[in-house]
Amino acid sequence: MTACITGWAHSKFGKLEGETVESLIVGVASNAIEHAGLEAQDIDEIVLGHFNAGFSQQDFTASLVLQADDRLRFKPATRVENACATGSAAIHQGMKSIKAGGARNVLVVGVEQMTTTPGPQIGENLKKASYLPEDGEIPAGFAGVFGKIAHAYFQRHGDQSDALAMLAAKNHKNGVGNPYAQMRKDLGYDFCRNESEKNPFVAGPLKRTDCSLVSDGAAAIVLTELETAMQAPRAVMFRAAEHVQDFLPMSKRDILLFDGCEEGWKRAFKTSGVSLDDLSFVETHDCFTIAELIEYEAMGLAKRGEGGAVAMSGETAKDGRLPVNPSGGLKSKGHPIGATGVSMHALTAMQLCGEAGDIQVDGATLGGIFNMGGAAVANYVSIMERVR
């Protein structure tokens, strides 16, 4: 591939009092440029990932990145979105500019501020990432869509409540060590497994602990052309960066297969020349625990219908054969829509540079990322390796 991550920055995720979309953007943009050992004038292009969909009154946000430094004035800046994969879409746009020879250093920022929106409106905003002619009347917002998926999976493969609880507990345990995570509390398997006043059912068989969090936050990375990156303090190269888009209506596909996810991983393994067994860890898109379970099957970690068995086995624990979501995932870290894909790449770069602190996977050399928009509609897979 032609691009490397040479710097990054990450805000804390959660309900961030006193922050705005602008302040979140400015904070991570400035820090990522500095972390890459660059000055603002060294940036050739800016890409902002910001889903919005009604979360922010301020739309047309690309130029807010220029607020980080006056020397960014007149740099080309573009906002992109692709539902919950908005951050990865921004990264891909930056990589294409580098590949085309139009830029050597691209600043990519992902941001969302969700917690200032009233609860019912949050659900309506998120539902816009589904196919409204079919799913518009499903209750409980986007959780209702994945509750429908979970119910169908249970019907086909049996009750997976134990496995979903195990996944939630794993990710909450991992998140304790992540200083950026919204919820740094080890809830334990029993709490995640049992319905209670603090853990009620939300949609179908999904309880509150099966659902990712409503979050504010931002992350940024600097993408650098490969030859230039060899002079940087650190460089994490994309061995593969694949984007597979699928049909929006779930009725046009077998939604329990996550075909776009599977195709994305297949292409990434072919491009990179590695296999799943070569990966040191994976950051995958656990917007709901049922998504992580099906993603195990789509990436080839489990046979169809057997993702729950892998979840129960401990293979994907931080000390397991293939740690999945050592960061705590969206479940613990939080899910500010536009920031998530950038966050996943920044945290993977941290891991590969040995700078991940308490969430560090020992000896990590190859990292895999899966970021998803909608119900397996926008599918982005990256495989990354440190080269400097």
How would you characterize this protein structure?
This protein is an alpha/beta fold and 388 residues long. Helix content is 34%, strand content 19%. It contains 13 helices and eleven strands. It has helices at residues 21-35, 86-99, 119-127, 132-135, 141-157, 161-175, 189-193, 226-229, 259-272, 289-299, 307-313, 329-333, 340-352; strands spanning 3-10, 45-49, 77-80, 105-113, 201-203, 206-207, 216-225, 236-245, 281-284, 366-373, 378-386. It has a nine-stranded mixed β-sheet. The longest helix is centred in the middle third of the chain and has 17 residues, at 141-157. It is globular and about 55 Å long.
Percent range for β-strand residues? 15-25%
Shape: globular
Radius of gyration: 19 Å
How many beta strands in the DSSP annotation? 11
Largest sheet: 9 strands, mixed
Distance between the termini: 15 Å
| pLDDT < 50 runs, ≥5 residues | none
**How many helix segments?**
13
Chain oligomer state: single chain
Range of helix content: 25-40%
Strand order of the largest sheet: 3-2-4-7-1-8-11-10-9
Overall pLDDT level: 97
Structural class from helices and strands?
A: alpha/beta
Return the string of H and E elements. EHEEHEHHHHHEEEHEHEHHHHEE
